[in-house]
Amino acid sequence: MGYTILKKEELIPGQTTMMVIDAPQIAKKAKPGNFVMLRVSEHGERIPLTIADCDKEKGTISIVYLVVGKTTAEMNTLREGGRFADVCGPLGRPTHIEKSGTVVCVGGGTGIAAMHHIAKGHVEAGNRVIAIIGARSKNLLLFCSELSSFCPEVRIATDDGSEGHKGFVTEVLQDILETEDEVAEVVAIGPVPMMEAVCRVTLPFNVKTTVSLNSIMVDGIGMCGACRCTVGGKTLFACVDGPEFDGHKVDFAELKARLWQFKEQEEESMELFSKECQCHGR
Amino acid sequence: MADRKQKKIRGRTPMPHQDPQVRAGNFEEVALGYSREQALIEAERCLQCKKPLCQEGCPVNIDIRWFIACLVDDDLEGAFNAIRRTNSLPAVCGRVCPQETQCEGRCILGKKHEPVAIGRLERYVADTYAARSACEEVTDLAACALEREDVRVACIGSGPSSLTVAGYLAGRGIKVDVFEALHEPGGVLIYGIPEFRLPKSVVARELDGLRQLGVTFHTNWVGGKTITVQDLLEQGYGAIFIGVGAGLPRFLGVPGENLVGVFSANEYLTRVNLGRAYAFPNYDTPAYRARRVAVIGAGNVAMDAARTALRMGAKEVSIVYRRSEDEMPARREEIEHAVEEGIRIRCLCGPLAFHGDNQGRLKAMTVQKMELGQPDESGRCSPVCLEGQTEQISCDMAIIAVGTRPNPILLEATPDLKLNKWGYVEADPETGETSMPNVFAGGDIVTGAATVISAMGAGRRAAREIAERLL
Asked: How confident is the model at residue B194, as a pLDDT?
């Protein structure tokens, strides 16, 4: 039976978790930048999650998630050996990777997981990759060792200065853009405000900047249009045209408004789930 | 049977319905179906024409005269077998086919009187006979032994066209694997058509029938992503049928269309039907909550979206359509049902812009008033703008139901597949074969958005060709 959780690892206790899932048919086809649509249980919602890594030989994919609502909270109740009702993919256009020179990959929060997969792809393509990862504090940094294992240049920024640069990833990025001769591309994956800030930094340098949009999706296969976003004045679908787009053309204000569409219902779901959890706990 | 023609011609036997006021608040089926007595009375109205035009009007060519004759003789099994010979989804077709333009539209009684209610009779036969399993119907065995395990056919997509292919081929002992991208098989029958028009239990029953015939459904397999046409050919499938459906929703291209509160009909219906948002929070998929809803478009999908919004608690639902009521593409019956339930129809106006509040949420829409001009290439009178005449309609949700364009996923992954000038798959109209040998296609991915039964017709033609080649 597929979709079994082979490994579950809490990367940041109570917050961010990584799962390795048995999904040979997906692993076989997955490329950096792809995502899956997943359903925890029969009553669950379909949610998109980026494929953080895949092992084609073992037939597994890895996902990393932050507990933000009912679905991710429910995911957290699953254990190793348990299984998802559905995992569907790989979806979306893979990251465009070619030998282009120096590529700066910026990751924030759980986005670091997806970024690491893309950085790996760029390294394999023969590019010089400079990775920048950021978090509030040292103990919240993800994928540091994984990144370092294949990427010789990993820069860190923490809000509290507990490791690396004290401040934002954008400041590190600014510094790199000012000192490096030629940066072919900047890839940014993380919270929307971070991706937006990265685009603001790179714009004056006229560097190609790719962002990965985490729009709300329902089917993830181009059928519903829930994930539509305005890019360069055109309406595009994150699931089939993306999820990666030219960051300088993305209407971030619209993206942010659309991400909040179901806030009330999400809160209602979460509240109900918390109550049920307490009941079962007794 | 000759003496029947002498009888005074009675009117059509009315279909019992749920009361409009009650049903507007639930997702139960609207039309309740004939009783045995009603079915027999209606069946007796059939003139048993020597040249049955009704059958010609049916895209899957059901022997309608024969099935009705069986019904008159109270031979339910004979009636069911007659239908099933050419139609693998009778309970679905009896509910959602546009009979008025097909079988019933050709019925000779309809010239001077009301046509025989063929669709309702089909539904009666399918529902009543459903107690027996699909296999028993064909082979008198509880499960079918496949005769030809070595001959395998793959269907991509599990909507009406693929299900027809699967049913036809499995009935002839061919092993069929159906690959579905979503987590439930059924395609538009599951994500698109609401429960009140086609209960999921009816679809489930038809799918079970196919499983008993040996059809295997693989869910979460996206054609063009998880598996490609090339992969399937390499895996030794003798033929592949592509029935991946209509695709990407079309939008209007007017300002404010991406405001929060503006949805495609596909999204809204998928949330409610596939995600069962009507049962939120028992099911996790949410649907937007709104009081005043405007649905743009007037096809069956628009009617489904409007009636769904009403059942989801909207206080006021309008259909906004740029032509007049006569041009509405939806089935008459669906429009009537919608109006009975309290849905308002605003004809001759089209959206110019959507307006939001400071949080980006829809609050109103400006429409352009229209009048009817000369007929266009579709044969319908074209809408002409009435210069300077606009109106603001306040609404907190808008659902766009103006059609679809081809979904790129499978097409991009299959570069050898020749497309027509509209971007749909080019397929031989007789056999369904595409530019790739032994790769067939049918349904909306060939024709653009059409009806369940026309997709089934395409499936049937392809299946016949496939069977001829492989057996």
From this structure: 96
Write out chain A residues lying below 8 Å of B407, CB-based: 221-223, 240
- Residue from the list A44, A91, A224 with its beta carbon closest to the beta carbon of B222: A91
Q: Which of A28, A71, A221, A229 to mutate to test the interface with B (most CBs of B within 10 A)?
A: A221
Exposure string over B58-95, b if 16+ CB within 10 A, otherwise e: bbbebbbbbbbbbbbeeebebbbbbbbbbbbbbbbbbb
Contact between chains at A85 and B183 (C-beta distance less than 8 A)? yes
Q: Model confidence at B137, in pLDDT bands (50, 70, 90)?
A: low
Closest in A88, A240, A253 to B220, CB measured: A88
pLDDT of residue A99: 94
pLDDT of residue B8: 65
Close Cβ partners of A152 (under 8 Å, ≥ 6 residues apart): none
At residue A162 the predicted structure's pLDDT band, cuts being 50, 70 and 90, is: very high
Q: In terms of C-beta density within 10 A (0-12 exposed, 13-18 middle, 19 or more buried), how is residue B379 classed?
A: exposed
Residues 6+ apart with CB under 8 A from B225: A29, A89, A90, A91, A221, B181, B409, B413
User: What pLDDT was estimated at residue B289?
Assistant: 86
Mean pLDDT of A146-155: 92
Smallest Cβ distance to B225: which of A91, A226, A260? A91
Task: Using CA coordinates, name the residue in chain A closest to B221.
Answer: A88
- Alpha-carbon distance of B144 to B211, in angstroms, equals 9
**CB nearest to A88's CB, from B222, B283, B284:** B222
Question: What is the sign of the dihedral through the CA atoms of B49, B53, B57 and B60?
Answer: positive
Are A222 and B182 a contacting pair at CB < 8 A? no
* Residue B87: pLDDT band with limits 50, 70, 90: confident
Q: Encode pLDDT of B361-413 as tens digits.
A: 999 999 999 999 988 887 888 899 999 999 999 999 999 999 999 999 999 99
The pTM (predicted TM-score) of the whole model is: 0.90
For residue range A105-139, list pLDDT tens digits in order. 999 988 999 899 999 999 999 999 999 999 999 88
> How confident is the model over A79-93, as a mean pLDDT?
96
Q: Are A246 and A209 in contact (CB under 8 A)?
A: yes
Instruction: Kindly determine whether residue A226 and residue B267, on different chains, have CB atoms separated by under 8 Å.
Output: yes
Where b means 16+ CB within 10 Å and e means fewer, A39-55 reads: bbbebbbbbbbbbbbbe
Report the alpha-carbon distance of residue B302 to residue B129 in Å, rounded: 32
In this structure, how many other beta carbons lie within 10 angstroms of the beta carbon of residue A243? 28
Enumerate residues 6+ apart whose C-beta is below 8 A from B303.
B319, B330, B331, B334, B335, B337, B338
Q: Which residues of A touch B (CB under 8 A)?
A: 25-26, 29, 39, 43-46, 70-71, 85-91, 218-219, 221-226, 228-230, 235, 237, 240, 253-254, 257-258, 260-262, 264-266, 268-269, 272
Give the CA angle between residues A76, A81, A84 to the nearest 5°. Answer: 55
Q: In what order do the strands lie in the sheet with B316-320?
A: B262-264, B397-400, B292-296, B316-320, B344-346
Rounded to a whole number, what is the distance in angstroms from the first to the last CA of chain A?
32
